[in-house]
Amino acid sequence: MRVVSFESRRAKEMCALIERCGGQAISAPTMREVPLETNTEALAFAERLFADEFHVAIFLTGVGTRMLAQAIGTQYPPERFPDALSSLVTVVRGPKPHAVFREMKVTPTVVVPEPNTWEDLLEALDAYQSVQGCGVAVQEYGLPNHELVAALKDRGAHVTQVPVYRWQLPEDLGPLRQAITALNTGSVSVVLFTNATQVKHLFDVAELEGCADQLRSTMGQVVIGSVGPIASAALQGYGMTVDYEPDAPYFGPLVRQTARRAHDLLEKKVLAGQEGIDTNNWRRIDMTWVGHHDSKPNRLIDDSVFMKACRREQTPYTPIWLMRQAGRYQRSYREIRRNVTMRDFCQKPDLCAEVTLMAVDRLGVDAAIIFSDLMVVAEPLGLGVEYAPGPIIDQPIRSRDDLKRLKDPNIEDLGHVFDSLDITRKALRPDIALIGFAGAPFTIASYLVEGSGSRHYTHTKQMMHGDPEAWDELMSRITAMIVTYLNRQIESGADAVQIFDSWVGVLSPADYEQYVLPHMKRLIDGVDRSAPLIHFTTGNPALLPQISSVGGDVIGVDWRVDLVDAWELLGDEMAIMGNLDPCVLLTSPGVIRKQAKEILDKAGGRRGHIFNLGHGVLPQTPPQHVSELVDFVHEQSAN
C-alpha cells in the first residue's frame, strides 16, 4: 500500500517504520517550527511568574517547554525558571514535557496520563485542585487550544496564554504538492497525520493548487490514520472521518496498528463509497455491505471460520474472539461511554452497535458480540437495576413473598437489544459472525437474590436449599424469559448465541444436578438451533460432565481446566471455546505468545476449537496486547 506521511521533524523515522510494516512510504512534510521573532510573551510570562502571579502552569509540549526555558534563560539566570516552577502547581501533558522537567530537575505536580488529551488534562487537574480564582498559564504549541482555555475559564480560572513557537509551511512545497497529486489521482491507500497543524497546512496548499474540494472528496476513499484526539478533531473540522486512532498517541503505534487493519478498513470504505455512503462523514453503523442488505439467512456467514468451528468443520486457522472485546481497556470505548451511564448506554441501539463494530474494526477478530449486559432482563421482570459499575438490584428477591413482585415480562421491553442486533448485522462484514447472548438462569437468579455480585452467594444458597419450591419458581420464570429472549435475538440477526453462567462455579456437582440442570436443559432445548449455541461456565471444572449432558454446540471453559482434560471430559464430538487466563494479557507480548501457543498445542488442530479468554478482557489490559494475541493465534494456527 502507498502511504503518505505528513510528519516533518521525524520524517525519516516515520518512513522507515512504514517500510518495515510493508508499506511504500511517501514523505510529504507539512510544517516547520519557527520560534517567535521576539520573545516578549515568554519574557512577560517570566516577569509575572517571578512576581507570584500564577498558581498553576500547564505545559503542553516538550519542544515548547524547552524553548520557553531557553527564551527565559536569555534574560535571567538559568536556575531562576526551575526554582519558580517548584513553588507552584505544574501540569505536564505527557512524557515529553515531563522529560524536560527532569532535565531541569523539577518534579511536576500533575502528570497527565495517556492519551494526554486536553480532557484528560482537565480531569487530572480537577482531581488535584480547583482552579477557581487561580492564575493559570498555558504554554501553547502551534495553534492555540481554544477548548482547553475555554474550559479553564468556565472553571473560574484567570488564563494567560503563553505562545512559544508557531508553525509555518515548509520552504520546499514540492513533496506536499506531489502527495496531493498522488492522492487526487487515486494512487494512495493510507494517509497518516501526527499533528493537527498538518491538516491545516495540507488544505492550505490544496487551496493554493485549486483542488481542496477534490482532495476532501479523495480522502473519503483512503484510510485516514490520526495519532490522537487533537489531530482527529482537526480532521473532523475539515469534514473528514478518522478511520484509525491508536490507543497510545505516538507515531509508532499509529503506523503499526494502522498497518494491521488498513486492508480491511480500505475495503469497507471503498465499498461504502460505491453504495453512496458519504465516507467523509459517517459512522460504522452507516455501512451496508454489498449483497447483504436485509437478506436472511446470510449465506456468507455459513462459510465463516467461526461458524465452521462451531459445527466442528475444518478451518484454515483457529478463529478467535474475546469476551468484553469492546470495553474499558479501549480509549475509543471510553470516549463513546463518556458521560453516559451503563444503563442508559445499553438502551441506545446506535451506540451499542457502534462499539460492537468498533471492536471488530480495531482487533480483526472472527466474531462480534453485541454490546449489552446480562442484567437488562431485570427491568422487564419489574426490578430496578443500576450499575456501580457492576449491576445492583434495587430490591432483591429473598423470599417466596418477594416473588409476587415479579412481573410477567413483555419481551418487547428489550427491543433496544433487538434493534442493536439488527443495526449491527447490516453493518458488519457478512463473513463475520454476530453473537447474541443472555445470562443463564442460575447467574440471573443469583443477581436477583443477592442484589449484586457476591463472594459466597449465601442468600442464593439459602433460598435454594431452604425453600426449593420458591427457587424452582424463580428459575422457571427466568428460564422461560431467556428462551424467548434468545430466540428474538436470533430473529433480529444473531448468527450464534452464548449463554453466560458466570457464577455457577460456586455450586457442587450435586447441587447443579438438582437445582440448575433441569432448567438449563429446558432452556437449551427451547432455543432455535438454527444458530449455534455456546454454553459458557466458569469456576468449577467438576461440573463439566453435567454441563456436557445439558447440551450446546460449543462449551466455553475458563483457565481453571486444562484443555486436554476438558476434551476428555466432554468428548471429541463437542466444540470447545477457551481458555487463556485474562491476566496473561497484563504481562508482555512474549509471555502472551508462549501461553497462547501452549493452548493451541493442546488443541492440537482439532476441529471445533475457538480461541477465547477464560473470562472477559480486564479494564487495565494494554490494548496492544489484545491485538498481539489475535495476530498470534491467526498466524500460529494457519494451515
Characterization of the model:
The chain is of the alpha/beta class and 639 residues long. It has 3 domains: 2-31 and 169-282, Rossmann fold, CATH 3.40.50.10090; 34-168, Rossmann fold (3-Layer(aba) Sandwich), CATH 3.40.50; 299-437 and 448-456 and 479-637, TIM Barrel (Alpha-Beta Barrel), CATH 3.20.20.210. The chain contains 27 helices and 20 strands. The strands form 5 sheets. Strands 12-15-16-17-18-19-20 form a 7-stranded parallel sheet. β5 (89-92), α5 (95-103) and β6 form a beta-alpha-beta unit. α19 packs across α21. The chain is globular. Mean pLDDT is 94; it is low at 292-297.
Topology:
Blueprint: E1 2-5, H1 11-20, E2 24-27, E3 32-35, H2 40-50, E4 56-59, H3 62-73, H4 80-85, E5 89-92, H5 95-103, E6 110-111, H6 118-128, E7 135-140, H7 146-154, E8 158-163, E9 165-168, H8 174-184, E10 190-193, H9 196-208, H10 212-218, E11 223-226, H11 229-237, H12 251-274, H13 299-302, H14 305-310, H15 331-337, H16 342-346, H17 349-363, E12 367-369, E13 385-387, E14 391-393, H18 415-427, E15 433-439, H19 441-450, H20 458-466, H21 468-491, E16 496-501, H22 509-515, H23 517-526, E17 533-537, H24 544-550, E18 554-556, H25 563-570, E19 575-577, H26 589-603, E20 609-610, H27 623-637
Helical percentage? 40-55%
Strand residues, percent: 5-15%
How many DSSP-defined strands? 20
Number of domains: 3
Provide mean pLDDT, rounded. 94
**SS element count, helices:** 27
The name CATH uses for the topology of the largest domain is TIM Barrel
Strand order of the largest sheet: 12-15-16-17-18-19-20
Instruction: Give the C-level CATH assignment of the largest domain.
Output: Alpha Beta
Q: What is the CA–CA distance across the termini?
A: 26 Å
Radius of gyration: 28 Å
Note poorly predicted spans: 292-297
Give the overall silhouette: globular
User: Judging by the overall fold, what is the CATH architecture of the largest domain?
Assistant: Alpha-Beta Barrel
Largest sheet: 7 strands, parallel
The secondary-structure class comes to alpha/beta
